[in-house]
Amino acid sequence: MRKAVLVTGASSGVGLALCKRLLEEDHELHLCLACRNGSKAEAVRAALLASRPLAEVSIVQVDVSDLQSVFRASRELKQRFQRLDYVYLNAGIMPNPQLNIKALFSGLFSRKVIHMFSTAEGLLTQEDKITADGLQEVFETNVFGHFILIQELAPLLCHSDSPSQLIWTSSRNARKSNFCLEDIQHSRGQEPYSSSKYAVDLLSVAVNRNFNSRGLYSSVVCPGTMVTNMTCGILPPFVWTLLMPIIWLLRFFANAFTLTPYNGTEALMDLDEDTAEKFYQSLLELEKHVRATIQKRNHQS
User: pTM score > 0.90 for this model?
Assistant: First the structure.
């Protein structure tokens, strides 16, 4: 029986590279591309099948920043699959990143230059906005949409006789200092991406505490420092061209530049399980509120 693998954000960047590698490792997978843009997903599917004709590649259209879309996709997946063996929770956004030039030049002439380039700590701020669901966009896209997806797909994931795996795309930019239980959506801060990625790390811990007994296991992976469609807008292209030789040189001094999944384990090293559990409970409370709001809206319409 083919293993069933779901990848969110599969049409570009890390998600697309991941799909290619998965099929290189096992070309008999049933790979499901969970993408927001249907036409891009179709093009990716065609390219993957051209190189791996024995593979089974399907598409489910989902926008994790839209809970109605998440619910629709979940229903569709439950109709199509009896189980999911692996779910890669990769979709994410970093909207309108702004570079702190002062912090950049200050860091260039300090002992923390390698750390600065590998984590972007203190370098990036983003402009967040509110979604149609009344949530912060970065939080809903990077964290809450995936959380709801897991909850909805629990019947496909929880089989104690044959465990399933969740793999989250985290980031070296995940900073505990940017996360606050009193403001889990980071509505009062300027680094929602960093906060959301630390929240992902916490959520992975909480999922293990709450779902391991039901046959579901979770881990986080950091893909390392790279230029993708998410990060290329931070600097003009010519600046990236100038920086790339430096970044390649830094690979000899910092493991964050090796771009291996091993780096993702660092995010789990300093996680507080009590904080993770409290965050998980906060998400459950938010889920109740959001579901009640949606139900009320549906009744009114």
Answer: no
